[in-house]
Amino acid sequence: MTGSAALVSIQTATCRRVKMGERSVLTAFGKQPVSGDVAVMPLGLLGDEQADLSVHGGLEKAVYAYPSEHYAFWKNARVEAGVCPFDDRLPYGGLGENLTLQGLLESDVWAGDVLRFANCELKVTLPREPCYKFNAVMGFARASKLMAQSGFCGFYLSVVRPGTLRAGESFELVPGRRGVSITQLFAAKISKHLR
Question: Residue 15 and residue 27: Cα distance in Å, rounded?
Answer without folding.
Answer: 5
